[in-house]
Amino acid sequence: MARVHVRLRAGAPWWLGCRPCRPACPRDPEGALPRLVAGVGNPWSGDLDLGPRFVRRYRGHGWPADVVLEELTVAAQRVLHRLWELRPAALVVVAGFPRGDHPGTVRRYRPSCDTTDEADLQRRLGESAAGVIDLDHILAVTSYFGALPADTVVIEVEPAQTVFSERLSATVSARLPDLLALVDGEVRRRAPARQLRGAACDRPGLQDGGL
After folding, report:
1. pLDDT at position 196
2. Which residues are CB-contacts of 151 (< 8 A; sequence separation ≥ 6)?
3. Of the chain's two ends, which shows fewer C-beta atoms within 10 Å, N or C?
4. d(Cα 101, Cα 159) in Å, to the nearest integer?
5. Neighbours of 187 (CB within 10 A)
6. What is the model's pLDDT at position 86?
């Protein structure tokens, strides 16, 4: 695969200067870019599997024609390449992720642009290469490499259980209608995009806001 090289400071890891060339973006016949609802999560891990389960449950909800729903039960590098392939005009990430709030708490936020240094990025990529699926890793890596669209929103729920389980907890299951309303609202307030927008930020951190 062809690579694009960018200039880095002396001593920076070689892989920070490479990324695959982006293929053509899928569009509808009128030229609109896709809008992506991505369910991020860990399979068979209780409420950490919320994102993919949300996608499976509501795939037939009746979304606008340009909206794509995908289960992203993969590590950060795979998500990065998938975003480069799709180049969505807007992205809504759905996930269950622990941040110390009361179980069932729903949070909506946009990834911030705080600096992710190269050592931290290398750690995140190393853990991802070992198979770790982590929402913060995904947001940090995809932001660093400019893969997140400017219009990116994360909607996540505080899990009640994170042990092996093929089901969501009753607490998190009860929030599914609220989650659907939030995601549906995010999608429908956006008109289909007719041109590619810039990345959300170049060097990300996270800024959390609760609902």
Report:
1. 39
2. 89, 90, 91, 190, 197, 200
3. N
4. 9
5. 20
6. 92
Please give the model's pTM, rounded to 2 decimal places: 0.77
The residues, ordered by sequence, that sit 6+ positions from 163 with a Cβ below 8 Å of its Cβ are 45, 46
Tokens 């509501």: give the residue: 58
The C-alpha atoms of residue 205 and residue 211 are separated, in whole angstroms, by: 20
Beta strands in 25-163 (DSSP E): 35-40, 67-72, 90-96, 106-109, 151-157
Q: Are the CB atoms for 153 and 110 separated by under 8 Å?
A: yes
Successive 10-residue mean pLDDT values, the chain, 211 residues:
39 42 42 86 95 96 94 94 94 97 96 75 92 94 92 97 94 97 90 48 38 43
Using alpha carbons, select from 190, 93, 71, 197 the residue that is nearest to residue 140.
93
